[in-house]
Design goal:
The protein is α+β, with helices and mostly antiparallel strands. The protein has two domains: 68 residues, Orthogonal Bundle (Arc Repressor Mutant, subunit A), CATH 1.10.10; 116 residues, Umud Fragment, subunit A (Ribbon), CATH 2.10.109.10. 19% of the residues lie in helices and 31% in strands. It is globular.
Length: 200
């Protein structure tokens, strides 16, 4: 019996919705999105389901962060690694949900990894250009100066170098023509470990 088998029918539906959002766009839904999907008018009603899923070991949640729901277990492996949509390499932009897979098995170990399609040119001085794929290791932390996929508390995702400061985080582009982005709270979705470029 799996952990999911121990959940109620409603809890399974909520879990599958969360899993689809994480697979599709790289991060989980908000409490409001879950409530809208299942016609649950009260945030407390949604929280009851989330607490039950967390207690049963299916999800983990981070406090004080929007869309901070993570799967406690890795999903069943399919061929390739999940493509979590597009990520802005310019202005902030919410990742676009889609359901595709990219097969980089010959180049990367797919465990705990995901891919993003780059849009924009804010990272060109790190040889990451518009149209490239970045392969990321899923992690919640990063070292100073690493290239990360970062999500703000507003749910916007961007590809930048990560510089934590005393009371804020600086997300630094690798393009002298662009200014850094400063945020108070940020969630690290992954650290870039490789770049794939398709040549026509």
């Amino acid at each position: 019996m799996t952990l999911l088998d121990k959940a109620t029918k409603r809890q399974k539906a909520v879990y599958l919705f969360i899993r689809d959002k994480i697979r599709g766009r790289g991060y989980g839904p908000t409490v409001r999105e879950i409530g809208d999907e299942f016609d649950i008018s009260s945030p407390n009603g949604v929280m009851c389901h989330l607490k039950a899923l967390e207690k049963k070991g299916l999800i983990v949640r981070e406090k004080n962060m929007s869309r901070a729901i993570q799967l406690a277990q890795e999903p069943a492996e399919d061929r390739g690694i999940p493509l979590y949509g597009d990520v802005a390499a310019g202005v902030l932009h919410e990742a676009i949900e889609q359901d595709e897979r990219v097969d980089f098995d010959s180049m990367f170990n797919r465990k705990n990894m995901f891919a993003l399609h780059v849009r924009g040119d804010s990272m060109i001085e790190d040889a990451i250009t518009d149209g490239d794929y970045v392969v990321c290791k899923r992690t919640r932390s990063a070292q100073k100066g690493q290239i990360v996929v970062a999500q703000t508390e507003d749910g916007e995702a961007t590809l930048k170098r990560y510089y934590p400061e005393s009371r804020r985080v600086r997300l630094e582009p690798s393009n002298r023509r662009m200014k850094p982005i400063y945020v108070k709270n940020v969630k690290i979705l992954g650290v870039v470990i490789g770049v794939v470029r398709q040549v026509a």
